[in-house]
């Protein structure tokens, strides 16, 4: 049987050593996720660059396995079978990151958090709590809006502006405290600044009295951020430290090592 690059899915890909059909199936799932979880075949073809016959065949297999669903409007959506995979992967991510979160907590004395962006929301996937009696606690698995949290803004800053705006949506940004930034223009100024200086601040924007410093985890396969959070006065005191114990350099160093572990 003759084969072409568009229709030869079963053999190893010579450039990468991978199986081309598997690579293309995940490419379609990623394209579907980037489209907000729902798209037509023509939209998938345009965004993935794959030929329509290949997309037809792969989508049919993904639908049969429950990883994709077809709705009544002949659009395709991410399927429910992905939920278990995502939940398990999130738990494992938190487990892999725990030694680094513990190191950050020991270095700062404050609660260390790890979060990813999922479906337009921040999802906390790991945490090591401070040993202090007054400490911050966020349940692992909790979902929050990205514009009012340190990790959320660190995640948004990793995206192209158009994609970040799509994540925020068209509705007005919700105010949680008098300090929440609800002006998109001001928020994007903060994101630009965070890229320049390497960290972002949540100054009582999610909860009164709580300050959070967050940095991106470079090299992670999906936008990932870690943070330290605690009472405002204690976090400001950490920020004022200099030398080997300076907060942001310590966080960036730990984030870089974690990123190398998580890199595909």
Rounded radius of gyration (Å) = 21 Å
The total domain count is: 2
Mean pLDDT across the residues is 84
β-sheet strand percentage? 15-25%
Quote the distance from N terminus to C terminus. Answer: 34 Å
Instruction: Output the helix-strand order.
Output: HEHHEEHEEEHHHEEEHH
Q: Briefly, what CATH class of the largest domain?
A: Alpha Beta
Q: In DSSP terms, counting alpha (H) and pi (I) runs of 4 or more, how many helices?
A: 9
Low-confidence residue ranges: 1-15
Q: Rough shape? A: elongated
What is the CATH topology classification name of the largest domain? Beta-Lactamase
Q: Helix content range of the residues, please?
A: 40-55%
Largest sheet: 6 strands, antiparallel
Number of strands: 9
CATH-assigned homologous superfamily of the largest domain: GAF domain
Oligomer: single chain
Task: Specify the structural class.
Answer: alpha+beta
Walk across the major sheet and give the strand order. Answer: 6-5-4-9-8-7
Structure description:
Residues 19-80 form the HTH iclR-type domain. This is Allantoin degradation transcriptional regulator AllR. InterPro entries: GAF-like_dom_sf (IPR029016), HTH_MetabolicPath_Reg (IPR050707), Tscrpt_reg_IclR_C (IPR014757), Tscrpt_reg_IclR_N (IPR005471), WH-like_DNA-bd_sf (IPR036388), WH_DNA-bd_sf (IPR036390). Keywords: DNA-binding, Transcription, Transcription regulation. It holds the Pfam family HTH_IclR. The longest helix is centred in the middle third of the chain and has 28 residues, at 81-108. The chain has helices at 20-34, 41-48, 52-65, 81-108, 150-156, 161-168, 184-197, 232-240, 247-262, and strands spanning 38-39, 68-70, 76-78, 111-118, 121-128, 143-144, 200-203, 210-216, 224-231. It has 264 residues and is α+β, with helices and mostly antiparallel strands. The protein folds into 2 domains: 20-79, Orthogonal Bundle (Arc Repressor Mutant, subunit A); 83-262, GAF domain (Beta-Lactamase, 2-Layer Sandwich), CATH 3.30.450. The protein is built from 9 helices and 9 strands. Helix 1 (20-34) crosses helix 3 (52-65) and helix 4 packs antiparallel against helix 9. Strand 4 (111-118) and strand 5 form a beta hairpin. The protein has a 6-stranded antiparallel sheet with strand order 6-5-4-9-8-7, with helices on both faces. It has a 3-stranded antiparallel sheet with strand order 1-3-2. It is elongated and about 60 Å long. It starts with 19 loop residues before the first helix and ends with a helix.
């Amino acid at each position: 049987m003759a084969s072409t690059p568009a229709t030869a899915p079963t053999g190893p890909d010579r450039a990468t050593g991978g199986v081309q059909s598997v690579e293309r199936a995940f490419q379609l799932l990623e394209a579907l996720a980037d489209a907000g979880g729902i798209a037509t075949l023509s939209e998938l073809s345009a965004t993935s660059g794959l030929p329509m016959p290949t997309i037809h065949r792969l989508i049919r297999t993904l639908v049969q396995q429950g990883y994709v669903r077809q709705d009544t409007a002949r659009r395709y959506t991410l399927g429910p079978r992905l939920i278990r995979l995502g939940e398990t992967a999130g738990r494992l991510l938190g487990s892999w990151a725990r030694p680094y979160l513990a190191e950050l907590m020991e270095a700062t004395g404050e609660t260390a958090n790890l979060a990813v962006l999922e479906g337009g929301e921040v999802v906390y996937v790991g945490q090591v709590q401070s040993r202090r009696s007054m400490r911050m606690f966020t349940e692992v698995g909790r979902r929050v809006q990205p514009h009012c949290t340190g990790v959320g803004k660190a995640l948004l800053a990793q995206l192209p502006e158009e994609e970040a705006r799509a994540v925020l949506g068209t509705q007005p940004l919700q105010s949680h405290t008098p300090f929440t930034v609800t002006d998109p223009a001001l928020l994007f100024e903060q994101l630009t600044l965070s890229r320049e200086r390497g960290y972002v601040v949540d100054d009582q924007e999610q909860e009164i009295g709580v300050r959070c410093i967050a940095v991106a985890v470079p090299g992670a396969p999906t936008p990932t951020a870690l943070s330290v959070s605690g009472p405002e006065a204690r976090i400001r005191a950490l920020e004022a430290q200099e030398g080997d114990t300076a907060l942001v350099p310590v966080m960036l160093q730990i984030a870089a090592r974690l990123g190398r572990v998580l890199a595909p």
